Structure formats: structure tokens, C-alpha cells
Amino acid sequence: MSMREPQFSLAVKNPGVREITFAEAVREAIAEEMRRDPRVFVIGEDVAEAGTVFKVLKGMVDEFGPQRIIDSPISEAGIAGIGVGAAMTGMRPIVDIMFGDFITLTMDQMVNQAAKTHYMSGGKLKVPMVLRTTMGATRRSAAQHSQSLHAWLSHVPGLKVVIPSTPYDAKGLMKAAIRDENPVAIFEDKMSYQLKGPVPTTEYVLPIGVADVKRTGEDVTIVATSSMVQVALKAAEILAESGISAEVVDPRSTAPLDKQTLIESAKKTSRAIVVDEGYQSYGVTAEIAAVIADGAFYYLDAPVKRLGAMDVPIPFSPPLEDLTVPTPAALVDLAKSLCGKV
Amino acid sequence: MSMREPQFSLAVKNPGVREITFAEAVREAIAEEMRRDPRVFVIGEDVAEAGTVFKVLKGMVDEFGPQRIIDSPISEAGIAGIGVGAAMTGMRPIVDIMFGDFITLTMDQMVNQAAKTHYMSGGKLKVPMVLRTTMGATRRSAAQHSQSLHAWLSHVPGLKVVIPSTPYDAKGLMKAAIRDENPVAIFEDKMSYQLKGPVPTTEYVLPIGVADVKRTGEDVTIVATSSMVQVALKAAEILAESGISAEVVDPRSTAPLDKQTLIESAKKTSRAIVVDEGYQSYGVTAEIAAVIADGAFYYLDAPVKRLGAMDVPIPFSPPLEDLTVPTPAALVDLAKSLCGKV
Amino acid sequence: MIDRPIGYQATPDPVAIAELDPEQWLHMYEQMSKIRAFEEAANELYTSARMPGLTHLYIGEEAVAVGVCEALRQDDYITSTHRGHGHCLAKGATLDRMFAELLGKAAGYCRGKGGSMHIADQDTGNLGANAIVGGSAGIATGAALSIKMRGSDQVAVCFFGDGALGQGLFYESANMAQLWKLPVIYVCENNQYNEYTHNSETAAGTLTGRAEAFGIHTVSVDGQDVRAVYSVMSELVARARRGEGPAFLLCHTYRFHGHHVGDIDRSYYRSKEEEQWWREGRDPLKLLAGWLQEQGMEAAIFARIDEAVRREVEAAVQFALDAPYPDASEVDRHVYA
Amino acid sequence: MIDRPIGYQATPDPVAIAELDPEQWLHMYEQMSKIRAFEEAANELYTSARMPGLTHLYIGEEAVAVGVCEALRQDDYITSTHRGHGHCLAKGATLDRMFAELLGKAAGYCRGKGGSMHIADQDTGNLGANAIVGGSAGIATGAALSIKMRGSDQVAVCFFGDGALGQGLFYESANMAQLWKLPVIYVCENNQYNEYTHNSETAAGTLTGRAEAFGIHTVSVDGQDVRAVYSVMSELVARARRGEGPAFLLCHTYRFHGHHVGDIDRSYYRSKEEEQWWREGRDPLKLLAGWLQEQGMEAAIFARIDEAVRREVEAAVQFALDAPYPDASEVDRHVYA
Ligand SMILES: Cc1ncc(C[n+]2csc(CCOP(=O)(O)OP(=O)(O)O)c2C)c(N)n1
Ligand SMILES: Cc1ncc(C[n+]2csc(CCOP(=O)(O)OP(=O)(O)O)c2C)c(N)n1
Ligand SMILES: [Mg+2]
Ligand SMILES: [Mg+2]
């Protein structure tokens, strides 16, 4: 970049803050924790020289070596199990599951082993592991490489589930997950990896279980997760033009869920929409909508509405795939009708 | 039984109806379908001579032989996959997964294969298979043998999920599941196997996706699934003593969900409670509560309440385990407070 | 050091080969040529940004699909993989509907809903490509169980890569196949790589040992030599039809291109020299053409076949490009049958 | 026909055995006797309806747990199974806290929250019993990876039944253990049955082949002979500590009782004669006692041990019966650390 060009980046406006991508934020978090704590390691398919298929960990093997960035066979159940065992015996594994669709293969290890070990042992054993995986559609990857299955793990007591939406959250929550004494699953949206955002140069860790109000508003609360936060923010801008002031709340983790913040926001605005990229039925929107509809019942002027992915296997064909995910336009329509402005 | 003893069974009152157990109803359904259709077979662990660990299929191998009641190795993923392949090529497999907790091992085959094949093939291939498994706690079987994980499969488009509560429903819905052209998961409550109820001697099939009002009432709707139907009926009796008239609605399948019947009932009573034995958070109660809270919003006098299993790994210790499941007493308390009668 | 194919199979039984007339070898050449041209066109569609998503090219491995599928009947089943175009074409699919599928068009085999990684074609016995590595081991085994229960003499073939041996499902399925003597043939396409990792880093012991453990009949073959693949496979199919149970066929092969169309800089995981060694010395099309010429066939015939195939492919691409997308109303059709 | 143990291991290396003084053999006898008495008491608690749920008795298989665990240090890890009381005791757990766990009491190893199928005891390196058949293959392998990463010379032992070889997870784990030369020893307790089905109906090929496929060092041993188990295991442990990688130890054994305490009528899956053959001819306690007597030890000593053990067990049962249940407030503690 030429020296004469104006520098709009936050790094200049706020010293100690730069703009980096979501992917870089994740990499920084893991690298920092690996430097800090020799017990942390990564295991997964093509994580080392290839740096994962999304290149998120690119270069890390150069610093940490193949003993700590471990390329595994194509054995999702096996590496999840190895993660559980390593975590029980003093290590802090990060198990990398390339596509969130493949957590199907790890469910026994995550649900019957990782999640329950602490409880079943009466509090003696611990499983401080991170399951790092992805979510999100519209990459034209079809039905087995596009799902957002975080609702399943959120259903399981003993697991924490983190779904960051910005580089800042991704870094702070990844660090928290690695330091957590419990098994934590992190779902990263594949389409967000190139999203840029301000991230401090100094160390920080975010608490898991605290929602973040991404935009304040008065007329309607939009609870949005992961990439849906950007969708909600775009919708909020459009709604503003119609005189509707939307508040966008990002739970940041589905388990634990910061019910209080969600309910308070809904009480304030008296209307709520929940948007999430998992299948709508029996998904994350159901829990959050149920929580708000209960907790804010006497304040609500309209039913809590939900916008999840369409309940269909995700189609390959681009025009069809695009119909299955929540969009700013759909959100705007829903919000307008909810606010009686159609 | 002595000839002089009065015979209260329905079999006598209604010719063509006898009282049989839930387990017998399931066995009858499978046996009848196997007689009717040579494509139907059962595969699972200890299903043949042992007749499953719950003895539900006891004796069937004598009639159908070990070629159609197939004892498998301890390979849940493998038999699920074999089920998918057999179903795609002209057979109608019933894959028997002993404990619902073990569906963790079949998730890839059920979710990425069985559920998606029809859609991904543009409607050409079909997977008419049944996944038969169990649910329910309080058998002192601890955290890995007591879960009710039906919410997961209900979340997946392409799958149907059936959760019968009575011998009558168990038989009629099992027959429907076997005849269905889609993959259908049936969760049978382990504690219900000895439950007796009237079942016609003549052939019948129940439609999947139609709720059943198990008791009519005016003041509060209790939506209850599987064994929770009995809990709800007991609660309803107790509530009647306090002058509260409870309607008990059993969805009978979570996917498809008969939203209309649930919403209509809630509109009528203006209050609703959803009770299910899965973990409460992100479970079946969330979806049903969200559906009712939305659909009956303008009719509700109080928030929709949920009663699921406590969000903890299921403890072995009997006094602790008993605390984790919804009980008639807890339901009565909740209903009373909802109706303003505490 | 340059890798050489291990487990090279001596020239197949000359008697069996003699029985095939030259036309049949030429047909196999044509099939391989068709796959090659299809994949080159797919690559071109990707690089010219006319294809959505990514796709995994089969170039270099053509002799496996063709050798295997030529030994099958149309009503035999196959299950396929993310690298599945070759299997699909070899089993009898047509170019136009395949391209249409790759482009997400309604005329595609799956109405555009499956895409490259999920092409299925019931009419030719293709139970579908699978984007879950190793995900079809159970399905193929289940198809074989179905065959046996129905008393048919079909066979089921499960194609999968060397990387799929990392998945536990294979072992569960293989055990049952052998226990119940099912007519399933597991065809392992050992192209040495799991994405960007050589299988020496991901596979301990031997690949054949993983089937032998269950007592399964196991054969290794040079997967670049379509004659060898066809010949061995014919025996395994006959064996399965006779009720003698499952088999495991390990085919040593190589993908000439990247893991997928976007995998251009491969130097961090394998050398240009290695690729060149295979492309030049072990190209399945060249090997077959060379042998047929040694048998006295004129050289020009291969160029003629290639040319005809190229024209077919061009027309098929055009068909697919011109074809309409599925209607929006398709989006929630076929969720349930 | 009555089954006989296959893969019988010749009497173990006399040199190694000579190094153990008689006290050590007596200690192993005592450990086996303790397991036997524990299980008999557990059965009695069940039949007298004083134990909640079901439990799986280890009677008949004592030589495996004791022979294996005697070759381990306290800081070595084990993972255990649904049939885990023997492993737990052999690794050093105490009777009273185990009975307390079986009864769901707060004094139990897991505060009553785990129960028979989930006993874990961090202090003796027991990472827990597992009610998912084969569910701990990954955990034990992960513990071995942790050992290697931490540069420790511990070893991890994975106990599992012959039925667990039906689970794909074993193969995924074994492959990685061998690839990375991890100090894990897979101990397969082949008691021939998967619940109510003989493994001839569930296992194709050979059991040892399933580890050999990955190049894993594999040994078979007579699991009724604690001297053989101990001797072979000692070598495998030394090998693992030296960094020579994983091993697979196949122990041929037999459960004298039902699959669980409620499995009384077994005639539909195995004969009384078969059971009797094992109980009479291959009882691990009798075999060791007999051999020690041949070596000149007086017979009375075994009765004295059995009697002392019985008293200990009685006291432990009483302790457990008297112990309080966990407080209701425990129910949602320990969900998260
Ligand atoms: C269960 C699963 N894990 C990981 C992947 C990602 N992935 C796609 S192809 C591939 C490599 C497969 O290697 P191999 O089986 O040898 O087939 P090849 O690509 O060499 O033909 C991987 C890891 C996947 N699709 N499914
Ligand atoms: C994944 C799974 N499937 C099935 C079961 C039910 N089950 C409990 S024990 C058992 C048999 C286990 O056989 P084996 O591994 O040989 O151990 P053994 O009981 O003979 O000691 C089965 C099928 C289970 N607990 N877990
Ligand atoms: Mg490969
Ligand atoms: Mg056994």
C-alpha cells in the first residue's frame, strides 16, 4: 500500500488494535495458548503442512512442529477419543474436525465420554479438550458438507458450545475454550474466515456464556448466532431506513446460554426474532425462542419468531441452496411484519 | 386366574380387543409385517435367540429363522449402514439399537446417509428402513444407558421420529414405520415395555404425524411424549381433584410434528406445559414450546412451560436419578402455578 | 526418491485375456478416454468459474473404474466416492446428465440437488457417490446382504480411497461381509494420498492386512493396467456370484492432478518429479494403447477415439450450460419419499 | 463339543518366574481371591434386592486383571469395561468404596454417580469403566499419546472384551497407536461371548489378525493362568516403556456366571457342561494354588487367605450398606468442572 493512501484501519485509529480476519484470529488464539501452555496441542486431518483445508492453521507446524500439530488419519471418532484420553491425563488437546457434518462420527466420544466423564467420576476426572469444527452453508458443498449441527451438542449436559461471530470473539473465546476445564465445542462459520474485524494486539480472554449486544435498538430484538450476526446487522441497517430500530444480540455460546441478556433485550423491545443457520426444527432457534417466550412473556407484543435453515438436506444447486439459508431480506420481512409495518 | 374372578379386561368388554403389553404390541407389529412382506427383516445385537435384552422379540427367530432375525456383531455404525444399503436395494430392514444412548454411533449413517439419500439423489433412491431403539431413565443404568436422544434425530430433515406411549400406538405406528418409504426412527421407552393396554386383534395401522388427545380438558394443555404420557395422565387425575381440568396431548411423533393439534389445544385451554424425558435444553420441549408459543400466542394466558429431564448426565444413585426425571408431582406443581392455584 | 507402484501384479492370465476380442479392449480405452475428457472439461469449467463448488478429478485412475466396472453387469451395484466421476461413467452414466449435475441443473442425475459428490444413478446400479470418506462401506455391504436375501446373483462393489481405511466403519462392515459371505467387493483405490498427506503418515501396517484380518480374500493389482484390473476383478466377481463371499481388491494408482480442482500448488506434499514419473510412465490410457499397438492395432485409432470423445464431451458441456436450474419449488421436494 | 482354550500359551519363561518370590505369587492369589469374593458378594446383594440396577461379574476371569495389573505401576493407566470390578480391584481400589459405589452411596469412588459400570479411580490410574462396548479404545490410546508427549515412562492399558472388536473405534485407535509408537497395550479378554452370542457368530477371521493388520506386536495367552498373563504382560510393559510401541494381548478366558447377574437361564446359548468344564478345569484360583502347592507351599494357606478376604469383603459390604446416599444437592454438581 502506498504511504500516501489514507489508512482507515482501526489499527491506526486505536493503537493496540488491528484489523485481522476471523481465520487469523483463530490462529493467533491457538498459537498464543500453545506458547503459553505446553500441554496444548492440535490433532486433526491435514492440520500440519496443509494448515487445515481452510488454511486457518497455516504455518503453525513451522513454529510448533509436527509433534504438537499432529496430522491424523481420517478417523474422526478415533481422534475425538484420543482427545478425551489425552485430556484426562494432563494434556489440553484441540481436536480439529474439518467439517461440522463429520461430528456425526464423534458423537459417542463427545457425548457418552467427554461430556459425562467428570460427572460420572464424581468430579474426579476432567476432560479439558476443545473440539474445533465448522458450520455454515452456501459454499456449494452440498448436503454432507454444509450443515450446522451445533444444536446437538448444545443438548448435552457436560459440554460447552461456542459459536463466535467476529474475529474479536473468535480469538477471545478460543482462548477461553482452551483454558476451560471442560470439553468445549467451537463451531466456526466457514464463510466468516475472511471476515475482518478489530482485534487488540494485547492479550485478552472472553468469558464463555456471556452474550454480546452487537447493536442496540428499541423496536425489535434479533438474536443472531455465528454468521447470522452479519445477516442481522445488515437487516438492522435496512430496517433502520423504515424507521424500525433493531437490537442485535449475539449469545456467543449456546451452552451455557446467557438467558438473562436475551430476555432483558426482548423485554425492552417487546418483540423478538431468533436467527440461526442450523435446521430450524428442533434447532437452536427453538431453545432460544422458548426461553424468551417464557422469560419475557408478559412484555411481548407479538410472538417470538424463528428463522433457521430450511428443514431440507442442503441442496447443491446454487439457486436452491440460497433459498435454504436465512437472508437479510427474509429477516427484514419478518421484522417488518412483526412490527406491523408490512 | 380363577373362572369366578371378574374379568375387567377390555378384551371381554370389547370383542376383538385384548389387553397386551407394550412389548407384545411391538412384537406383534413386527411379526405381522414380516409375515406380510418378505422384504422386512431385523438386524441387531442379540435379537435372535435372546430376543433382545428386553426380550421384546423373544421367540421371533423360531418363526422367521436367523436369516431374517439376524444377530449382529457389536457394530452399531455397521448395522445402521447395512440397513441403509439394504433399504436402498429393495429390502425393508429394521435395525435394532439396544439402548438409545448408542445411536451416537449411528449418527453418520442415519444423518448423513439415510436421511439425505432420497433428496441428494433427486428423488431416485429411497431408504425405507426403521431404526428401532429405546429411551428412558430410572432403570439405575447410569449415564450411558439412560438417555432419551430423540431430539437429535428430530432435528434432521429426511428422518421421521416416532415415540409411542401405549401398546396401541406402539403397534400401529411400528407397522406404519415399516411400511413407510422413508427412514423412521422409533424410540421405545424401556419402562413402558410392561405397560398393558387395549389392542385390537384385527389389523390396523396408524398414520405417522397425527397427535392423539389422550385426555380432554379445559384449563391447561399438557403435551406429553412417550412415558411422560402416563406421568401426565397421573398428574391430570391429581389436578382434577383441585378442580383443574387438564388436556393431555400426545404428539406420537416428533417429526413430522402435528403442530395444528397442539396449537388448537393450547388455544382452547390458554395454557400449555410440554413434558418430555429428553434433556430439557435444546430438547423436544423447546421445539414444541416454541411452536405453541408462536401459534397460540394471542390465546395464551401464561407462558408455555417446559419440563424435560434435568440437564445433567443421568446419575446412577437411585435418589439422585429420581430427581432428574419429570414426575407427576412436579407436573402438578407446575400446572397449579400456571393456573394460578398454588 | 520417486515412488514406484508397489504390489505390481504380473500380466493377467493370458487365457482370460485372449477371450476378449480387441473391440472390448478398445471399448475400455474409449471409456477411459471419456473419463479423462470429462475430467479435463470439469477442470476447465471450474477454472473458468462456470462450475459451482469444487470437484475431485479422477485423472490418472481411469483404469481402476473401467477395469472394475467392465467386469460388472448393469444390475450390479457400486457405491462411489467424492472422486466419483470415473466410477459413474464407467458404470454407464451419460456425459450430459453428469455435467448437468455438476452445474446444479435440473437435467442432472440428481436434479442438481446432489452435485459432483453425490451423483447417483439407479438405472446403472450406482447407489451414489459419498462425500463422507468411507461412508459407503456399510451401504455396499448392506446392498450385498440384500442381494443374498433376495437370492439374486448380483454383486456389490464398494469403491473407496486408501484414506478411507482410517474409518472404523470399514472394519465393522468387512467383518459382517465375511461372517455372512456376502457378495461385496471392496475396491481400495490406493493413490497414496489422503488429501495433502501421504498414507505412510496415516496408515500403519499393511493395507491388505486390514481385510485379511477378517479372513477376506485379498488381491493387489497394478491399478494403472486396465487389463490387470479387469482380469482380476472378473475372477472376484465370479467368485462372489458363486457365493464364495467378499473380496478386497487393492489397486495401486495415482491421481495426476490435485486433491481437488483448487489444489494447484502441491509442492509442499509431493514433488513434480513424482507426478511426472506417474504421468509419463504409468498413464493408463497410454499403457493400454501401447499394448494394443504391440498386438498390431494401428496407432491412429486412439486419436480417432479421443477426438470423438472430445466432441461428445463438448456437446455434453454445452447441453449442461444451456440447461435450466431447478425451479425454486424443488427446494423442499424429495425430503421425504 | 466342549470348548477348550485355544491359543494356549506354554508355561511362561521359568527364568522370569523364578525371579518372583513366593510371596508375590501369594499376593496375586490374594488379589484374585478378593475379586472372587467381591463378585460373589455383589451377586448376593443383587439377588437380595439390595443393589440397584444390574452388574456384570468377573468371576472366572480373575487371572487376566491380576496378571495384567501386577505388571503395572500405580501411575500406569488402565481403562476398564462394563465387567470392570476385577480391573479396578487389581489396580488397587479398596473394597469398601467400590461396594459403596455399587450401591450408589456418597462414599463410593464416584460419589455414587457412576455406579458399577463407571467406576473410576484416579489415584490408582483407573481412568474408568465404560458402558459403551469398545468405547475406551480411544481414551487409552489418548492417554498413551499424553504419556509420550509428557515424556513420561508410564504405560496405558486398554481392557476390552472380544465383543468390542466389533467396534470400528478399535481399528482407528490401533492404527494411530502403531503409527506413533504409543505405549498402549490392548488387552482383549476373550471370554468367547458377546452377551448371549458366541463370538464364532460375530467375529470373522482371527482376533489377533485385527491388531497384526496394523503391524502391532501381538501375543496370545492362557488367561486362566495368572503366571502366564503376568509373565507375558511384564514383557509387553517393558517393551512399551522402552518406546517400542503398542501391543495387543489376547487372553483366552471364560466368565463362569451369566452376562450379568440377572442372566440365570443360559441354556439357550451355552451348555452347563461347557461351564462346568471351565469351572472345574480352568479356575484361575485353583490353577495357581495347585501350582504353588506343587512348589511345596502348604494347602492351608489358601483357605486362610480366602477366609481373611471374606471377612474384609463382609466388612466392606456392611460399610457400604450403612453409608448414606449422596445429598440431593449433588444431583447437579460435577456437570462442569
Ligand atoms: C469423514 C470425512 N472426513 C474427512 C473428509 C475430508 N476429505 C475429503 S477427501 C479426503 C481424503 C480422502 O482420501 P482417500 O480416501 O485416499 O481418497 P482420495 O481423495 O485419495 O481419492 C478427506 C480427508 C471427508 N470428506 N469425510
Ligand atoms: C456400544 C454398545 N453396544 C452394545 C452394548 C450392550 N452390551 C453390553 S455388554 C455387551 C457384550 C460385550 O461383549 P464383550 O465385549 O465380549 O465383553 P464381555 O461382556 O464378554 O466381558 C453388549 C453387547 C453396549 N454396552 N455398548
Ligand atoms: Mg487416496
Ligand atoms: Mg466377551
SSE series of chain A: HEHEHEHEHEHEHEEEEHEEHEHEHH
* Whole-number count of domains of chain C: 1
Going by CATH, the homologous superfamily of chain C would be Thiamin diphosphate (ThDP)-binding fold, Pyr/PP domains
SSE ordering of chain C: HHHEHHHEHEEEHEHEHHH
Count the helices of chain C. How many?
A: 12
Question: How would you portray this structure in words?
Answer:
The complex is a heterotetramer, with 2 copies of chain A (342 residues) and 2 copies of chain C (337 residues). Chain A is built from 12 helices and 14 strands. Chain A is globular. Chain A is an alpha/beta fold. Chain A folds into 2 domains: 17-200, 3-Layer(aba) Sandwich (Rossmann fold); 212-338, Rossmann fold (3-Layer(aba) Sandwich), CATH 3.40.50.920. The relative contact order of chain A is 0.12. In chain A, helix 2 runs parallel beside helix 7, helix 8 crosses helix 12 (328-338) and helix 9 (259-269) packs across helix 10. Chain A has helices spanning 10-13, 22-36, 60-64, 76-88, 107-120, 150-154, 167-179, 228-241, 259-269, 284-295, 318-324, 328-338; strands at residues 17-21, 40-44, 69-71, 92-97, 130-135, 160-162, 184-189, 196-200, 212-215, 220-224, 246-250, 253-255, 272-279, 305-309. By secondary structure, chain C is an alpha/beta fold. In chain C, the strands form 2 sheets. Chain C has a 5-stranded parallel beta sheet, with helices on both faces. A two-stranded antiparallel sheet of chain C has the order 4-5. Chain C is globular. Mean pLDDT of chain C is 95; it is low at 1-10. The chains are: A alpha/beta (342), C alpha/beta (337). Chains in contact: A-B, A-C, A-D, B-C, B-D, C-D. At the B-C interface, helix 4 and helix 5 of B face helix 6 and helix 7 of C. The structure holds thiamine diphosphate (2 copies) and magnesium ion (MG) (2 copies). Residues 161-163, 191, 193-194 of chain C line the site of one magnesium ion.
